[in-house]
Amino acid sequence: MPITVPGKSPLVAPQLSPDSAVFDVVIVRIPCSEQASAQKIWEEIDEQHLPADLRTRLAQNGFRAGLVGTTLPIDLSKLLDLQSQPAEQGSGTTIALADLAQPIRNEHRHMPLRSGRRGEVVTSGTYDQLPVLIRTEDGVCGQTYYQAQAVLAVTPTLLADGRVKIDVAPELHHDQPRQRWVGDQGILRLEAGRPRRVFDELAASATLSPGEMLILGCLPDRPGSLGHNFFSESGEQPVQKLVIFRLVQTQHSSLYNPLPPAAEAERN
C-alpha cells in the first residue's frame, strides 16, 4: 500500500513529452521616456550572435535581436525586479520571471512546445489599416493590410546535446478568418484562420541552453518601420517592447540520443 506524505499530492507529477521544450516568454514595456535605460540593456545583449546579413536586414526594417546567457544583465534584472543568477544545466531550475514587480508593465507566459511545432506570441493590438514598407536587396516594396495584428511565430528544434534551436519569424495576421488547406506530416487538413504574411527573411534563430535567452525589440529611430509596428504602442505614454524567450527546460536524456557514427561502428 503506497504511503501518503501529509501535505504532498499522491498524484504523479505530469511529465513533458520527450520532444518538448519549455520557454518563459516575457513582454517588457519600456516607456519611450526611458530610452537611456533601454539602450543600456541592449549594450549587454549579444547582437553579434546573429549573422551580419541578417542583422542588416533586421536593422533596415526597424528590428533588433540578440542573445543573453544564463546571467541576466544588471539593467534588465532591475527592470524585471529580479536578481541575476545562473540556471543549472539540465536541472529545470527557473528564474521566477512570473514574479514581476509591475504586472501591468510586463506580461509573462509559460510556453511548452513540441519540437518542430509552432507557437505564437501576439505583440500588438489590431491595426484597422497598416501600410507596410519592406526594404530588401532589390529595393523597397509595400502593401497595406487591414485588421492586421503582429505575431511572432516560434518553432523549437531539439538537438541531441540537450540544447534547443529556436526560430522566431515575424508575421502579420490580417483580414477576416477563412478556411484553407494545411499540410501536416504528409496529411492535408482544412484549417480556419486569418491570412498570414510571413517575413521569413527577418526570422531570427539561436541555439539555447537552459537558462539562455533570445531577446527581440525595435530600433528607436525607425518610426513607421515594420519593427516599430511590432514592438511599440502609442498612447498617452508611448512605449517600446522587449520580447524575451528564455529556455527553461527540456526532457533531454542521453539514453535516447543516437550514438555518433564512430561509436556506432565500434559497438558493431
Provide structural commentary.
By secondary structure, the protein is mainly beta. The protein is built from five helices and 13 strands. The protein has helices at 35-43, 52-60, 74-80, 226-230, 261-267; strands at 20-31, 63-68, 106-114, 119-136, 139-158, 164-173, 178-184, 187-193, 196-198, 204-208, 213-218, 232-233, 239-250. The strands form three sheets. Strands 1, 2, 3, 11, 12 and 13 form a six-stranded antiparallel sheet that branches. It is globular. 28% of the residues are buried. Residues 82-104 and 254-268 have low confidence and may be disordered.
Q: Encode the helix/strand succession as letters.
A: EHHEHEEEEEEEEEHEEH
For the sheet with most strands, the description reads:
6 strands, antiparallel
Q: Which residue ranges are poorly predicted, with pLDDT under 50 across at least 5 consecutive positions?
A: 82-104, 254-268
The residue fraction in helices comes out at 10-25%
Q: How many helices?
A: 5
Nearest-angstrom radius of gyration?
Answer: 21 Å
Measured between the Cα atoms of the first and last residue, the distance is 45 Å
Residue-averaged pLDDT, rounded? 80
Shape by Cα distribution: globular
What percent strand?
35-45%
Number of strands: 13
Structural class: mainly beta
